[in-house]
Every structure is written in structure tokens, then in C-alpha cells.
Amino acid sequence: MIHASLKGLLLGPYDHRTALDEVVQMMGGLAYMTGRPGDPLRAGSSVNDIMGGMFGAIAILGALIQRGISGRGMEVQSALFENNVFLVGQHMLQYAITGKPAAPMPARISPWAIYDVFTVKDGEQIFLAAVSDAQWLTFCDALGLADLKADPALKTNNERVRARPTLLAELGRRLKEFSAAELSRRFEAAGLPFAPIMKPEQLLDDPHLNATGGLADILLTDGERAGQPVKATLFPFTLDGQRPGVRLNPPQRGEHTHEVLAALGIPEPEIDALIDARAVA
């Protein structure tokens, strides 16, 4: 038998603590890296709840492979705190290699000159990037920045990083002439990295997600909209070219009691007796 246990913390000095996603983000360095200096901030998603379960599933798959080799089962565990530490491992390794602590992301020293969110026409925002010297030249061509392209002080990425304060201020001034849609069109045509700043609710109408089958209808089980279909995200992978779809809608309370007990091998009369005795519901 393979037995999986999803925990707050693995066995050790902290395993008695009550763990929540936000708790482990704070104690595991992620909130420090996400927030501004002196202002730790949890990530905008329950990353440890999600990925803790994901790594539990990966461990189960590894145990299944091992069982096929050895014939033996095993217990596998996955925990929120250890998952969180894995996520910040890149920053721990940076310190181990360089001896310099990683600064929180909003205050980090950027390795690229242009890797930023810009406020453009009508107050819209868009993320734009140029992470190589070739992309810088394409960036200038796409936006008609011939003078910046010809500036010898901006020729290499390292030089542009040193000039970031003045360069970003100048780009911010010029980019206000463009709408986010126009910048998206130009950057997409030029093959440059860009991203409009989207809100979660806007993704429900995203043309790519809807065209690739990334969203599927499920039926709500309770609340004011009970029984109505809503869009939900599917697993972010394909199997043999297909996105795994919705297997079951979220169940009503007790909806599958009979099916679950039957799958365990309990005879029909005994299931009926259990239900009549209110031992199950």
C-alpha cells in the first residue's frame, strides 16, 4: 500500500506548530522576498497549499514506480513549510554562492536594464522587457527610439543597467504617448517580451485560454448561484494533445455516498442498512 500524508511541516522541531499557507510564507522567506523592504507580503496565490499537494502527487507517482520495481509500498509525505523553502531555494543558493543576501524583489538589483511595469496612455499599465543587446536594438526600432539606439552609453546591457534610473525615467515619459494595446501590437510583431497587466476576473474572457480549452464549465453547488455553470481552470498540461477535462462537478453533500461504499465492496443491502441507521448520510 502507498499512503500519502500532506502536512504543515515534516517531522522535526517545528512539526507541532499549526501551519497555514501564510504562516509558512512568513517563516520560509517568501513573504520577505515578495514584499518591499520592511514590509513582508504574502504571494498573491495560495502557492504552498497548491504546490504542497502537487509535490505530494509527484511523490505518489514516484512511489508507484518504485512499487512496480520492488513490489513494496511506502509512506510519502509532503509539507507546506518544506515546499515554501524549496520555492525560495534560488535565493538561498545565491547567498551561499556570493555571500550577499538577496534583496526583496521590489528592491532587487535588476540584471536587465528593461524589465519593468510602465504606466502608459490613459493610465494603463503594461510590463515590457528587453533582456539582451539584440532585444534592445529591436526595442528601439519598434518604438522609434533612434537616438537611444545610437547612444554609445547604452550600447551594452551592463551599461544600460548602470543608467537605469535616468533610462527608465526617459522611457516612462516617451511611453505615455502609446496605449497598452498599441504597445502590445508592436511588441508581439517584433517578438519582444511583454504582458498587459490583467486581473483574475479578466482571464475568464481571455481568447487564448478559451481557444486552447484552458477553462471548462462546472456547476456551483451552493450559494446564490447554486446550479449555475461557471468557468474553472483545468490542469495546465496536455496528455496526448488533450487537456484533461472535468471528471465530476463539485459534489453535493453526500451525493456519492452510495457509490463510494459500493466501490469499497460493501454489499447493497448493507449500504441501505447503514443509510437507514444514519451511520452514513
Explain what this protein looks like in three dimensions:
The chain is of the alpha+beta class and 281 residues long. Among the domains are: 2-106, Crotonobetainyl-coa:carnitine coa-transferase, domain 1 (Rossmann fold, 3-Layer(aba) Sandwich), CATH 3.40.50; 114-196, formyl-coa transferase, domain 3, CATH 3.30.1540. It contains 13 helices and seven strands. A three-stranded antiparallel beta sheet has the order 3-4-5. A hairpin with a 5-residue loop joins strand 3 (114-119) and strand 4 (125-130). Helix 3 packs across helix 4 (80-87) and helix 6 crosses helix 10 (180-190). The longest helix has 24 residues, at 47-70. It is extended. The two termini are 28 Å apart. The relative contact order is 0.08. The mean pLDDT is 95.
* CATH third-tier fold name of the domain at 2-106: Rossmann fold
Quaternary structure state of the chains depicted: single chain
**Order of SSEs, N→C?**
EHHHEHHEEHHHHHEHEEHH
Class computed from helices, strands and strand pairing: alpha+beta
Mean pLDDT: 95
| Approximate strand percentage | 5-15%
Helix content: 40-55%
